[in-house]
Amino acid sequence: MTDKIKVGDYLIIQRQKYTKLQKFNNLNTTVNLGKDQIELRLAENHPYCTTFHLVPKQERGRRLYTLDALSTPSEIRNLKELLIKESGNDNRNIIDDRQSQALSTEEILKLREECESSSEVIGKLVENSKSFATKTEYSQEKYLKRKEKKYFEYITIRRPSIRLLTDIYWRLDPEKVLGVRFDTLSQIISYSGVCSVGNYLLYESGTNGLLPAAMLNSIGAETGGKLVHLHPGNVAQKQALFAMDYPTEQQARCVSVNIYSVLRHFYQDREGAKENEAQEPAVAEAKENETLEPVVAKTEDSTDGERAEEVNGTSKRKHEETQDGTAEEEPEAKQLKVDKQKQAWELENEAAASIMREKFDSLAIVAKEHPYSILKALLPFVKPSRPVVIFSTCREILTESYVDMKAEASVTYLRVTSNWMRQYQILPNRTHPDVTMSGSSGYLLTGYTIGN
């Protein structure tokens, strides 16, 4: 992991408060921010958190920009200090008749092409506005922020983090991360007790790799912690894991396997081991009996001799066929199947099963499905007195699981909780909660396993 931007990295493109995840595939990669198209070629080898100025390219019919790195972020101008000179007492005499702006749409588009910076465009809009000077200072600030958001010509490229990725996924579509908000994610990590040592078991059915990325982030690099990531599909969703760009040794300690495949592999191996243990005494007894059997007499009756000749004849024919190379094909085919290399998913199943034999220090389930059947299948692999965390967007599902777990008495100290986070705008003389905010971010069922 380097501190500089390079091809192949996942980048967080930030324009004011808006953030977007973008992979820097090659030097010709472009990112779309609204109607603006930005080339990332010149961002290579610049440090993360560098602020770039968007330089327009002269291409007809396209809002295409290249990047020019700023030496200091202070080069960005403060529009409030530049443009607000006088303000009104109130807005009672302002009428929204769409006639306050003297410039036409064509003239504004022409300004965007002629002016070198967004502050010049906004300055022209303010000069030609008939109502700007009569607005209150607060209304003027809101007007400038709205225009600055539209014409702002600076972006900052940041390294992906768990917080930024969670905010981006939540803003785009909460259902793609099963409704897990950042505060809920922090609660899952906290209740699970994930740290740099121990083995941890996670089942999730579609969060774009956000849950395993967060847990692996808590485990840390160059530690002894291991994570087994179970999923229901053929291929695990790992976008967030790839975006975090963990070191190779840290990524190797996260094993992603299909839940049905690894459970079948685990129990088949255990049954095979039991059969081998049961067969060992029988094999030893058979060998002992073979040594005690008398040698068969050479003198046999004629019928036995004929049978022996028939058997010898067939064996001779088989021997001749093997010399021609015809009868050896079947054993060779079997040998090829035995010697065939194991596929990647088989190796991952073996690695996960070896950790499952050691058992886990916590279990976390974030699932679209009803979690109780999954819990029953995975609970035997958790050590005694270890935390269990189940997330669901539906409280009734967790209530059912709560009652069943109480009846079985396999988990104690059961609690169903809900997170409710509210953000506040904190400004002089106008501190208040955000007008638009999300409500509940799902529910958590937590408890601790009981030792046998």
Automatic annotation (TrEMBL):
Gene3D superfamilies linked: Vaccinia Virus protein VP39
Keyword Transcription regulation found: no
One annotated Gene Ontology cellular component of this protein: nucleus
Subcellular location: Nucleus
Region annotation (Disordered) ranges: 272-340
Comp. bias intervals (Basic and acidic residues): 298-310
Keywords recorded for this protein, A-Z: Nucleus, tRNA processing
Record carries keyword ATP-binding: no
InterPro entries listed in its UniProt record: SAM-dependent_MTases_sf (IPR029063), TRM6 (IPR017423)
Family in the record: Belongs to the TRM6/GCD10 family.
Subunit (UniProt): Heterotetramer.
Role according to the record: Substrate-binding subunit of tRNA (adenine-N1-)-methyltransferase, which catalyzes the formation of N1-methyladenine at position 58 (m1A58) in initiator methionyl-tRNA.
Record's protein name: tRNA (adenine(58)-N(1))-methyltransferase non-catalytic subunit TRM6
